[in-house]
Amino acid sequence: MAQPVIEGGTGTRSFSADEGSRLTSPSIRVREPLLSEILTRVHRAKNKSDMIKILREENCEALQQILQWAYNPTLASALPPGKPPYVENDAPEGTEHMLLRTEAKGLWHFVKILVSEEKDEKGKIKKIYRPADPKIQRTVMERMFIRLLEGLHKNEANLLCDVKDKKLVYKETKDKKGKVIETSGIKGLSIPILKEAFNWDDDFKKKDV
């Protein structure tokens, strides 16, 4: 882990012993956790209350954005499904990599928004989406996404791929006898928990205070 940054003033003024005793301790700012680290803690939380506590303590705009993409049913990926071909960034945490919490402001380029639902001739529901960024070319968007993945720490890149394909939603795979043989996603995390943690309404918007 990177060493804490001590935030304090500059200058050469000396303080008397009496003045020094009245000074408050400097604040200490440690490295902010990767979003992948935060959601790993959520996954390991013992109950709903612990999940909500973690989400509120680590709340930031970027965390809300990726969870919106992953859980909001009116948002979908404008990118092809599956993991794109990219080179993982092997830089250690806190060194030469970008942070999802600072890059999330550009994620809107990669999503599309549900505008309506229609039934086809067989009665099957068809969802109609519009791109959030209608001006961007598909090939440009895909290259942008790959560059983002290659710049992020590998754990956050893997997280973003799962967010893109809505794989944060917990899922169990069972064999023919009903035995669970594989799990994926964040166990226990649900839309009601996200609404309570972030004070969202049914449209995934912040409620009026």
Number of strands: 7
What does the largest sheet look like?
Answer: 3 strands, antiparallel
Q: Could you state the oligomeric state of the chains shown?
A: single chain
Distance between the termini: 38 Å
The fraction of residues assigned to DSSP E strands is 15-25%
Structural class by SSE content: alpha+beta
Task: Determine the number of helices (DSSP H or I, runs of at least 4 residues).
Answer: 8
Average pLDDT over all residues = 84
Shape: globular
Helix percentage range: 25-40%
Main traits of this protein?
disordered N terminus, three-stranded antiparallel β-sheet, 8 helices, two-stranded antiparallel ribbon, about 210 residues
Explain this structure.
The longest helix has 14 residues, at 138-151. The protein starts with a strand and ends in an 11-residue tail after the last helix. It has one domain (28-198). The protein is globular. It contains eight helices and seven strands, in the order E-H-E-H-H-H-E-H-E-E-H-H-E-E-H. The chain is an alpha+beta fold and 209 residues long.
Brief digest:
The protein has 209 residues and is an alpha+beta fold. It has helices at residues 17-22, 35-44, 48-57, 61-71, 100-103, 138-151, 154-164, 191-198; strands spanning 5-7, 27-29, 75-77, 111-119, 125-131, 171-174, 180-184. α2 runs antiparallel to α3 (48-57), α3 packs across α8 (191-198) and α6 packs antiparallel against α7.
Blueprint (SSEs and pairs):
Elements: E1 5-7, H1 17-22, E2 27-29, H2 35-44, H3 48-57, H4 61-71, E3 75-77, H5 100-103, E4 111-119, E5 125-131, H6 138-151, H7 154-164, E6 171-174, E7 180-184, H8 191-198
Antiparallel strand pairs: 1-2, 3-4, 4-5, 6-7
Helix pairs in contact: 2-3, 3-8, 4-7, 6-7
